[in-house]
Amino acid sequence: xxxxxxxxxxxxxxxxxxxxxxxxxxxxxxxxxxxxxxxxxxxxxxxxxxxxxxxxxxxxxxxxxxxxxxxxxxxxxxxxxxxxxxxxxxxxxxxxxxxxxxxxxxxxxxxxxxxxxxxxxxxxxxxxxxxxxxxxxxxxxxxxxxxxxxxxxxxxxxxxxxxxxxx
Length: 167
Hints:
Number of strands: 0
Strand content: under 5%
Oligomer: single chain
Number of helices: 8
Order of helices and strands: HHHHHHHH
Structural class: mainly alpha
């Protein structure tokens, strides 16, 4: 049986490929890998999303954006969030509302967590804690209480509440 994809991987394989490459990359090089992945995605998303005809190529970028949002951390996380948001806007403006919703929904928790950390860093610990409480509750409902992202968010919330950590 021949491969229906004629030599290229279908988009749903890309997150698996990214995770595989990341797992085989030495830890000190993972930030460079993350930065490169964000730059490649950034180059593929329109700089100024504009209304226009449906562009099916944009939908192919969704698995990349979602994979980056799920696994990336450090300084590249804010850049990945910005690109995913721009992709969601581009999808919406071209009429691909389902893909726009999926991308925006997955970008919401990292955005809230970044907002929480920023408010706490500015000395607004109560507001940062309230925002992080929302993130933890959403992640518990969406990902489950034992998912690594839920656990990490819960630990950060506990640290805020105890005064042990500032972002």
